[in-house]
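Intended use. Records such as the TPR-like protein entry shown here are meant for training and evaluating sequence-to-structure methods. They are not intended to support clinical decisions.
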Amino acid sequence: MQLADAGLKLLREVRSTEDLPLLEKAIATLRNALDLAPDDHPSKPGCLSNLGMALGWRFEHLEEPEDLDRAVEATRLAIDLSDESDPELPLFLNNLANWLSYRSHHLNGSTDLHHAIDAARRAVELTPDDDPSKPNFLSNLRNCLGLRFERLGDLKDLEDTILVAHRALDLTPDGHPERPARLSYLGDHYASRFKHLGDLRDLDRAIDSVRRAVGLTPSGHPKEAEILGVLAGRLSSRFDHLRELEDIECAIVTIRRLINLTPDDHPSKPARLNTAGNYFYSRFTHFNEIEDLERAVEATSRALDLTPDSHYEKPVYLSNLGIWFSARYERLGELQDLERAIETSLRAVELAPDTLPHKPSCLLSLGNHLALRFKRLDNLDDLERSIEAIHHAINLTPDGHPRAYLHFDNLGDRFALRFERLGELKDLESAIQAGSRAVDSLPNDHPSKAACLFNTASYLAARYRRLGELENLERAIEVNRRAVDLTPDGHINQPKYLNDLGNHFATRFERLGQPEDLERSIEANHRAVELTPDGHPLLPTYLSNLGAGMASRFKRLGELGDLERAIEVSVRSVDFTPDGHPEKPTRLNTSAYVFSLRFQRFGEIKDLEHAIEVSRRAIDLTPDGHPEKPMYFSNLSTYLGTRFERSGELQDIEQAIEAAHSAADRTPDGHASKAVCLNSLGNHFTLRFNRLGALEDFQHALESYNLAADQESGSPFIRLAATRVSTSLYWIGLQKGFAAQGELVSAYDRAMSLLPQVAWFGTSVSRRYEQLVDFGEMVNGAASAVIAAGDLQRAVEWLDQGRGVVWGQMLQLRNPVDDLHRYHPELANQLCSAAQALEDSGNSTGFSSSHFLNPSAPRPSRNMTLQDESSARIELARRYQELLAAVRAIEGYEDFLKPKRFLELRAASTDGPVVLVNVHEERCDALIVLSSSGLPIHVPLPALSYQRAERMRSLLHDSLRGGHARQRTPEPRGLPSDAPFRSRIFDVLGFLWSAVVSPILQVIESLNDVIENNLPHVTWCATGPLSFLPIHAAGLYDSRESRDRAFNRIISTYAPTLSSLLRRRADKPGDVQTSSGTRKILVVSQPQTPGHGALPGTVLEVTKVKKHFSKDAIVHLNHSQATVDSVLHEMRENPFPFMHLACHGLQDADDPRKSAFILYDGRLQLSQIMSHSTEHADLAFLSACETATGDKKLPEEAVHLTAGMLATGYKAVIGTMWSISDQDAPVIADEVYCRLRLDQEREGKIRTAYALHEAVRVLRETVGEADFARWVPFVHFGS
């Protein structure tokens, strides 16, 4: 085998010389030797292995795949010819592992890699630990396992790689030349595990390993530079995660050492300089030291100087330099830096071919710089070029690329910018789409996922502000919440995400009024403040938002601690903001607002003085043309007007008018806030008119109010507020000869058209009632005005339209809007959203309905001018009207949401006269509506006044409270028996007779055509304080004349409105009967409700009810059987014409749908009853507490259980004006059902009003006419 030895000798020479011709000679020599050697020759396996090595080396030089295949083949044959005990077998196996891993890498196949690992493992297993080759074999196995992990991602391979690397290192003695390299490799695998699992301990281990490698590497060693570069990179990575100064300092020291070791003509010098620039920039972004940015610019500039244009890395260096210039621009504001950033980025893009992997990043950087210049110079071309650059980057980036999300995230930002600039909704849609793609492309554990979610949430919130569609706000909250959840504690962006989440919750609170949203808002903003260190540039913003939330909660709950906290954080926000900061005026304005709240609470003039001073500073710091400057003037005018009311100093009202003028003049027509400014101006002219009485101020006030009311794009609430004050002025003007009746009627006409918009069904019920507290009395004023003008039909229409608004809406919406949602859902959703957007956009610049800033309201982009906002608002108003017109164009919806005309309303009086009694401070009148009369009949009521009616209401309320008639009890509790007390009660009833009932009955009885018998059926629609008084019991009870009592002349019924009677009469009569022809009844009784007083009388009451129905007609749920679910089940499965409730009741004035009957396991709310069909419901008998009491703040709204049951669909309801005796309920129930049964048997119909009238007569005769508290409370509502 001399030829084999000769071939081995040649291979050794090749290793030292890398002489390719000599390698060819060695291969030929080894082949000749193999040709001559038999298979059983002991040297043949070694010769085959050497040939495989030679072929493998040639492959490394020439990359001919055949060489690699033959190397594998030769080495495998060597292994096959070797005995297991052959000492050379581990070497052959190790070599085979090398060639197989090479082939796997070049052919991208996994099979060779699996075989390579198997071979390497056998080599390791066959080699004892004391063999000097074992560390090499372990290193080769480590390499193969690492390659398979990179290929397949199986973490077990990574774990095995680390274990094998540790074994190799343990077997490598100190001083061994390979120990530094093996330490470095071990660090590489720890770094890989950190990348995949995120355990910072692995990064620490990676840094420790490479640091030890650096320490063992002698100066000048060929691997010294490589290991230093690895150490610098690892330190930089740990700095990115932990932000510890020591790491970035060490990284910079290390990279500088590496640069000093690298001569200028070394090919790696530019790359190392560029890396140094990256590290300096990284330190700058954390510590904001401008010197680091300068060093970054210097290092990257040197890298560029050493790099020819043809080098593939030059575009990367240019792009980085552009980023450094851009950062310096953002720090110093020098436009030339931004220009240089764009210039260098353009060069990067021009030099980079589309095939260069870094080109998309270069395009992205260029797009970012152009966007910055757009924000600075407002040149739309820069924004268009930015979008174009990012689109180009996306087109060059393959699907699934790990950095593709960056391009979509930035594209979303650009579209959002263009939306703010141009207001085109399609750009906002594109922003949301791009942001969503960025989010969807990232796994939850990606460090940038939260940032992409946060940006997408901001786009959704912008779409909500534009369209008012609640779905967008809900999605913004959900997406922002995910961003918060994915952000670890201590992350730099955590406070920012929390702050915006708090703002979204605050916006939803403004929309829906749900207290939990306000609490969530405060909690999120509070955490944002807590997590932000003093000195952070965003801390003042977070403080300001927290202060706004605390102020909102103070206004809601009145807790002084919230107010003090709001003042504290708003003052800190102002103190932390320098005067030149663009947010300073806004924060001053917020501070003024919270100080004004404290003045309102305590009346300390110093707080109001501070609010005025701070508001003036906000104005002084705000340039003319700024979109928020009018708001600051308006708020200042409010504070000055308040001080005038406090001090009477004319100078204050003069300055208030001047500031209000400035606000109005600076706000263009059509802007959402124009109505606010004009209304405020009118208020100040009114204040001065009240003080000085000048006709000029009177005229200016009316002019301002009328202009405010005419702002179609303004908030309906503000427009109606302006109209209300203008009507008050017109009444004064009529008395003084300043105004005409026609002007007053026109103002009320406008008010009536605005009232449904203010109490719009898109808002919460409680919010609608809050607004109606302020405006309900306008309906009575409107009726008075048109009655005085002789337009009686319109008076009836307006009283019907303006009373019982919310119940009417519930019934109205229960049919047409439910139908619209059912058959035209998209149109229904658009209509509701447009209406809400129209109202919400009134706060877009921070004006609130009380003329104060609402600091938690979303604020417009600073790039959006007042005219832009006006255009958007006008578009919303137009959109709403178009949608409403579209609904009314559908067959069957022609009168959708339109008030009824008199000719329709007149049909409500088919069962007898309907009397509307209008009570207003200027005059009181009755209008009698008859089905047989073409016009309403007017009855002036000169003896009735609003003040007298209110005194009587208060007297009755106090008398009942003093007589304990506010709680249903087992024992009868009448009124006290002393004569003065009884005299007061009789005064109430006497007043009702003389001032109201008697003059009306005289007219009714004079109309022979409406009198069919001695007791006509009269339905009362009372207004104002009169709606709380028992008109049906009016009479002169000290008179012996029976005709001096209402119950002897008429049968009385009450109704909230004529429309409610029309709805009842339009329904089919209940015809659900048993086989015997008896109508069915559901009886619910609670003789002993847990947690409430006992009602033992309900046992007898139910017995009395049952005797009038056949057994199969009764479903009785008593005590524990009467649960909420069981009652609802019966209503759902068995529609009952009659329902009798003998239990406690609970009235909710804020949201009457939550008014409830107290059952065994909880509350049966009206909203639950409304969810079931009441098509066949004739009568609901409410034998419960105060079911028809009402709320004195809302006399026009019939906020009680009886009206609520009418709204659920019952045609008639028997209720009580106050609580009843447990002994009286059985008497009334027995008599009512007895007469209903007789009516059914004799005439085939039922008359519930007549039945109750007779039942009360029986009770009155039993207890005595003077026992007023026991027989009067029973009342009939409906038809």
